[in-house]
Design a protein that fits this description.
The complex is a heterodimer of chains A (227) and B (77). Chain A has five helices and eleven strands. Chain A has 227 residues and is α/β, with parallel strands linked by helices. Chain A has a single domain, classed as 3-Layer(aba) Sandwich (Rossmann fold). In chain A, strands 2-1-3-4-11-10-9-6-7 form a nine-stranded mixed sheet, with helices on both faces. Chain A has a two-stranded antiparallel ribbon with strand order 5-8. Chain B is α+β, with helices and mostly antiparallel strands. Chain B has one domain: Mth169, Chain: A (2-Layer Sandwich). Chain B is elongated and about 45 Å long. The two termini of chain B are 13 Å apart. Classes of the chains: A alpha/beta (227), B alpha+beta (77).
Chain lengths: 227, 77
């Protein structure tokens, strides 16, 4: 399986993602944002970080990069596009995913482990995943997911809410919502579920000696589903 | 020609920075401040003579980049 991680000026989770993808068997290539074309891939990843210093709005400058047209083309033809953290922000700014990630409700940069619940398994990302409540890491200042009432209804009706913040037993309450996101949303799909944007970082959770290893469930499962 | 643009959050959209500014003002000698909404100001110098055409061009910029219409409104001054 081939993957490509798009690197923008200010990306800083790109190499972690590269390590994670390779660990689980992807043949990964790093692709600079100025390239007009993406090498043939089964998965494109927009990594976390602070592309263009978060100027104007998080992800909005990266969303106008040269390579984005190829990403949109790939996504619209059904290719898998995964956006983590800043990558999620870029996906909303390109319009590939609805809504926007606003500043956290309590104006703090949040850096901690959280639990998230997998809400939908009828997709390439979570089909057959062995664990439905994952302990993952978040690190963001703008993770407060917001969209219009109509868009939220659409997300619910089509089971596009991929993962939600919860406790370790899967209970979702407002006090477990770290950033004020609508309905505890931590990640969403597009309608066809080939595009996934999420705030938590599975690539930071792939080594039991350094962290929890719940990210392994995510990557192992993803590559299996792509085979 | 210079065109000025103000981008503000839509009514009802959470504005944590505006809230913090309001609370700070209240804690100083400005207890009469009821609400603060923070926005962005752009001063755009375009290489055009016709004001109407320049504003139309800037409007396009607002829609495509300067504002995110999910949560923001823009005003061309």
């Amino acid at each position: 399986m081939k993957s490509a991680v798009i690197v923008f000026p200010g990306s800083n989770c790109d190499r972690d993602m590269d390590v994670a993808l390779k660990k689980f068997g992807f043949k990964n290539e790093m692709v600079w944002h100025n390239n007009p074309e993406i090498p043939k891939s089964d998965l494109i990843v927009l990594p976390g970080g602070f592309s263009y210093g978060d100027y104007l709005r998080c992800g909005c400058i990266a969303a106008k990069s040269k390579i984005i047209n190829s990403v949109v083309k790939f996504a619209n033809s059904g290719g898998l596009v995964l956006g983590i953290c800043n990558g999620f922000q870029i996906l909303t700014e390109t319009g590939l995913l609805p809504g926007i990630l606003q500043q956290n409700k309590y104006q703090k940069f949040i850096c901690k482990n959280v639990y998230v619940k997998v809400n939908d398994k009828k997709n390439k990302y979570f089909k057959n995943i062995k664990k439905e409540i994952l302990e993952l890491h978040i690190a963001h200042n703008e993770g407060n997911y917001f969209c219009s009432d109509d868009e939220l209804k659409c997300l619910k009706d089509n089971n596009q809410i991929a993962i939600t913040y919860c406790d370790k037993n899967g209970k979702e309450t407002e006090d477990l919502n770290p950033n004020g996101a609508l309905n505890n949303i931590a990640g969403i799909f597009n309608k066809n579920k080939n595009i996934l944007g999420m705030m938590p970082h599975p690539e930071r959770m792939i080594d039991k000696y350094l962290s929890s290893n719940d990210g392994e469930f995510f990557f192992e499962n993803l590559i299996e589903n792509l085979k | 020609m210079k065109i000025k643009v103000i981008v503000t959050l839509k009514k009802g959209v959470l504005d944590p920075q505006g809230k913090a500014i309001q609370q700070t003002l209240n804690g100083m000698t400005f207890s009469d401040v009821k609400q603060v909404r923070q926005g962005k100001y752009f001063d755009i110098d375009v290489n055009m003579e016709d004001e109407k055409k320049a504003k139309a061009r800037v409007e396009e910029m607002c829609k495509k980049l300067l504002a995110n219409l999910v949560i923001e409104d823009y005003k061309i001054l």
